[in-house]
Amino acid sequence: MSQDNDRRSDSAPAAAPGTSDQEYKVGPGRPPKEHQFKPGQSGNPKGAKRKPQSIAVDLKALLERELSKPIKLKQGEREQIVTMAHAGMKQLVAQYVKGDRHARRDLFLLADKLGVDLVPREGSRDEPLTAQYEAMLNNWCKKQYQDFVERPREFAPPELLDDDPKDQEAE
Question: Residue 43, SS3?
Fold first, then answer.
């Protein structure tokens, strides 16, 4: 309501108290007194139409309710009661392990959204490497280094290279 008063004062200033109707000049931004809004009257009497309520809140509650329902899972002779969400996660991971590309995509998106690391970090091993495994790893690293870094480049086998100047003179 204070905004309406502010708007009225900007666009159509009312006559100051103590001035008569004769001094009030009608013109642009100054409507006649009988057409001005009365105190407490809105410029939009019907108001803005209400927006329909979003169904997202209802759908979220419905999904949460359905995911929390219990279900029996049979694994061989053993029965286990878990929630639908738990069963769904088990099924998603099982499909991912089988190589389903859609399950892989969904699992990666879900893990990213939830902040789950799918690849264990370097310091995640609890026990240190044994001396045997460490030696095997060092030997493998040395071999890889020698094979790819220290070996000189060969463009062709030596028998195909023709570097003998005597053969060139004879021809």
Answer: coil
Distance CA 90, CA 112 (A): 18
Instruction: Convert the pLDDT of each residue in 58-98 to its tens digit.
Output: 999 999 999 999 999 888 889 999 999 999 999 999 999 99
The DSSP code for 30 is B
pTM, 2 dp: 0.41
Phi, psi torsion values for 168, nearest 5 degrees: -70, -35
- 10 Å Cβ neighbour count for 107? 19
CA dist 64 and 84 (Å) reads: 10
- Contacts of residue 90, Cβ cutoff 8 Å, sequence gap at least 6: 73, 82
Cα distance between the two ends of the chain = 108
- Name the residue with tokens 């998603």: 92
d(CA 86, CA 151): 53
Contacts of 162 (CB under 8 A, 6+ apart): 168
Query: In this structure, are residues 12 and 31 in contact, taking their beta carbons and an 8 Å threshold?
Result: yes
Angle at the Cα of 72 from the Cα atoms of 70 and 76, rounded to 5 degrees: 155
